[in-house]
Every structure is written in structure tokens, then in C-alpha cells.
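Render this sequence as a predicted structure.
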Amino acid sequence: MRFPLPIPSVRWLAVLSLCAGTAPLCRAQVRVLVDQVGYETAASKVALIETTQETRLSGFMLIDSDTGGVVYTGMLQPAGSVDQWRDWQFWKADFSTWRKPGHYKLRVAMPGGTASSCAFEIGSDLLERKTLSNIIYYFKGQRASGAMDRADRHLLLPEKPGGWIDVHGGWYDATGDYGIHLSHQNPTSYFNPQQVPLVAWTLLASYGLLQDRNDDNFSEYERRLLDEGLYGADFLVRMWRPGGSFLESINAPGSGKLAKDRAIGNPNWRTRIKTSANQSTESVGPAIGSHAYEASFRAGGGMAIAALALASTMPEDGDFPRSRYLATAEAAFSFLQAHNAELLNDHKENIVDDYCALMAATELYRASRQPLYLEAADRRANRLMSRLINFGPYHGYWRANDGTRPFFHPSDAGLPVVSLLRYAEIASPGRAWAPW
């Protein structure tokens, strides 16, 4: 299944699942697993057959669900097993050459009967048509509202006793978690997820892609994507601190998660790695310094800049004018270019800073066409590509630091590639790298 839209990879959503069907006679032996969303007309189409070790299979049939007729047959290919997944064996049914739109089932013959999948569709733009409306609706449902939103309009500024700030808006972190974060997990150095800013950027980037298609079937999706993306941009403007970066978090502490307890979050508030069994993961030191509560490039600042720069190119204003989006992005970028290391827990940039700063510089150049942002993007792209290395028997992997530590990530593992693809749209013709 292709992903034509830059769907965010945060823990808030999962759009693909499997469906399966078996004949009652052999329910424990065989399941036919297909993509519930469906298959794109011109893309690869592979189903998996799950069997037990003693089950012998050979061919499969593609059935037109409307007529009941067999329209395609093929041979199954062994796909092996998964370690410690019971006694299951898997087979592949590849029907990629069948490109006729319609509704189908996949059927396999076996000793004692047959097994069939549920019905699925072959068609165009299935992922968007079947999931995009629900995704947009989900984020709208996660908007801060009611007592929480009222409280966020008057939160105390921790670095300025007696001061307060209006930071209403944004999306709750997760079901049951009413915090709102640009990022968190800061003490881990390498695993900052990009949260609210990535959602805002993705919504607006998706809007742009659908606009480019000029397909009336998506006109209402476009309207909703733009509305939700600008809602996120407005929140990021409120989180910006003049002369600095963005406040990183709004916390919802306490078991009751009461509106009266909401506060600007200490960037070190969450998840330290335990060094002993009795150590609390919630034990953090005080935030220190005039910018202690603000986000670095890797802690949401880079993607916040990217989202605001992209918002400045939209056809409409949000609560703030588009000129304010761009001015905020430029001011925050200027600050982080000079002071990013000071906001890092280890005061040393790594791969996450590189790809987040590359996204920021790329979107600023797209919005303003100022050469200084292209130069900054060039530098970050070079640094990012220099992290693609060979070491010993391992070839072509991303190093997270300046040594050989591999890069892996719980939610945003694809962002180094996404940032380079976005940068490639503005890079000088013929630009190339030789990382090895």
C-alpha cells in the first residue's frame, strides 16, 4: 500500500489493518489476510495466507464479489515463519498484475474445504477516500476544549513570577492524556517525537498535495485540512516566546487531570531512563535559565518553524495573519541557529536536530525565497547525509551521533528521508552527495 499523503507517524493514529476469513471446517488451520483498506489499481497487491505447519497449499483464486466468478488464478509462494509466533507458516498470494477496479475476495483450496478472505476493493486513491476524513475528524476531536481550554488562556509563566500567557489551542497528547506537547522524552537525547508541530505541518502539506491534484472529489477534505492545519499554526504562534523559541509543553498533572492544575511544562518532566530499580522515572531537576522551558530544534522547535512557514503560504489567514506566521518562524529560527545547543539536555546536536532543522530551513526558503535559508538547508542536508555510513559489516545506515550509534526511533523513523525529499524540491539542480 502506498502512502501518497504524508500521514503523521505519531501514536495517535493507525490507518491500516488486516481482515481474514476461513471456512468453518478449517478455522484453526488457514486464514486469508488482505489489506482492509484495499489495493491501488496500479500498485503491488499481495495477500498473506496463514497456515499451520501441517497444512499444504498450492494455488489461489481471485473472486469477483459481485458476480462470484473467478477472474484470476495464481500459485502461492512460501513466505516463511516468524520466530516465536506459534506454529504459523505464511504464504504469499501475489495478484499485482490484476488491475481492474472492483470488489473481490481471495480464496485458497486446502484439504477438506476452502478458505476465503473478506471482501476488499481494488481502485484508485483508496487510502485517502477511506481514511482521510476519519483522520481529520479524529484530530478535530482531540482539540483542547471546555475547562482545559479556558485554563490554558491564563497560565502562569514559570520564568516570570506573576506573569501569565494565553496558550489555548492545540491537540491533546492522547486519549486520557490532556497534556499538549511540541515534543517530550527530552532526557533520552535521540527519541524526541515530533508531536503538535508535525501534525500541523502534515495537515497543511496534505492540503497542498490535494490542491495539486485538482480533484473535485477531495474539495471538502481540502477545506477541512486547511482549517485544522491553521488551528495548529495559531497554537504555535501563542507558544512562541519573543526573543526565544517555543514553550515546549502544557502539562496536565495529577491523577484527576484537573483544569486548575494545568501548567507550562518543564521540558525534563517526563521519562528519565532508570539507573536502578527503585528510581522514579518522574524525578527531574528544576528547569533553569530564561529559556529553560523552550524547545530546541529536536524538541519540536524545528517542526514548529516548518509548520508556521508552510502556514504562511496558505490561501487564508487563521486567527493570526499569514505574515505573523512567517515572522514568528523566522524569529524562532534565528534564535535556535544561535542557541540550539543551550536548550539540549546534553548540549550536543544529533541527527534529530539535523532533520528537524532541515525541515525548518527548507520551509522557510519555500515561503520567503531568501538565500540565507537555502544556505542553511544546504548545510543541514550535508550534515544529515554525512550520517549515512558504513561501519564494519553494516552498510548504509543512519548514525544518530558523531560516532557509530545507529539511529532508530519509536515514531518518527522516516523523518530523515522525508526531510531530504522535501529539501530536494528546492535544492540546486545537479546537487549530489557522496556520503561514503
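Summary. Confidence is low (pLDDT under 50) at residues 1-28, 270-275. Residues 219-239 form the longest helix (21 residues).
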